[in-house]
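Incident log, structure service

09:12 report received: a user says their structure output differs between two submissions of the same chain.
09:20 pulled the input from the user's history:
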Amino acid sequence: MTTTVIIGGSFAGMTAALEIKRKGKDEHKVILIDKSPLFLFIPSLIWVPFGRRDIKDISFKKEGILTKKGVDFVNEEATKIDATAQVVYTDKGTYHYDNLVIATGPKVKYDIAPGVEEFSHYVGTPNGAMKIRTALQEFKKNPGPIVIGATQNAGCMGAAYEFLFNIEKWLREENIRKKVDLYWITPEDYLGHFGIDGMPMGESMLKGFMKMFNIHYRTEVGVKEVQKNKVILTNDEELPSDFTMLMPPFVGVDLVTNSPDLHATPAGYIPVGDDYRHRDYNNIWAAGIAVDVKLPFTPKSVPFGSPKTGYPSDETGKIVAENIIRVAKGQTQLIKKEWGRIPGLCIMDAGKKEVIIFSTSLFKPRTFAIMIPNIIFDFNKVILEKYFLWKSKNGYAFLP
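09:34 re-ran on a clean worker, output below:
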């Protein structure tokens, strides 16, 4: 029996584990190690601060479905990998592997600038989203200026855009919009770059949104410092702020940086080929955010990255699973799909409105790319959430 250990149980890790077991059946033992017992549909965290969702609505215990599908779930924190001995160390034990899949997701680099961790909020974790909910209840008692955006080196601009439009909608619903100067700051070269070099009509559409919703914006800026009541930009402009939400950069988790055998990049990502196999180890694979992605563009003046969440994570989990099965069967022809050639598929919430984004590939050149606004209601975003939670709760990782 071939033993595959998977570290990380979010989109990429869950998908890889379930698919390896489904395809490999009794010939493959699959162990998934994750410090969190819950699977969380992260895209819906943007709704939690506004009471539209609670954490329990978008999460479930993953052990039940994994066990039902024949995957061993280990609720421990992986601390180090010995690639020579083929051992994963956790805070409670050791696990030997024939194949290893690193699907660890990100570590948030809060220290990108002074004051980011102390004086700004981050919506990308359950705790962060709930802290924002509490802070907004206090904010509406004495409203003032708000700064929303992303710092230098950030790659997940889409979620920050979503939060921006959701808080604008919330301000109107609370009848305090006229009392608030709302600012958007981003390291992007232009609105709607998204770390994928933009989409057709994307910049003009977002400029239209900014004008329609009376949002002040700054592009090609980073954060020099965050203080209690202001944000100082890298161009030395000071923006007053009584509430700040920023998307900091992602870097590799401590497990990776504590495992020198992995030969990770300085940012803590795993060097892989287009088959998502480690460049130096034939039995180590990476999926999702853990993958090192080379940008096909050069930011103009402020550095920023590319998104690696959502659909690409799910897709790379499937590719890794199929390739591990092929290798076990002695096949040499593996699936290869460069990260930038994965289709772009995203529904960006815009405050009970949405923008559907689709392209034949994440990076240019693309055969087809389109952004479609839906100003009536964000029902496609809701449908996607319900579908993915249903699919995940039932272990149907093979579905799109």
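09:41 both user submissions now match this output. Likely a transient worker issue. Closing.
09:42 reviewer note: The two ends are 29 Å apart (CA to CA). The CA atoms of residues 226 and 282 lie 44 Å apart.
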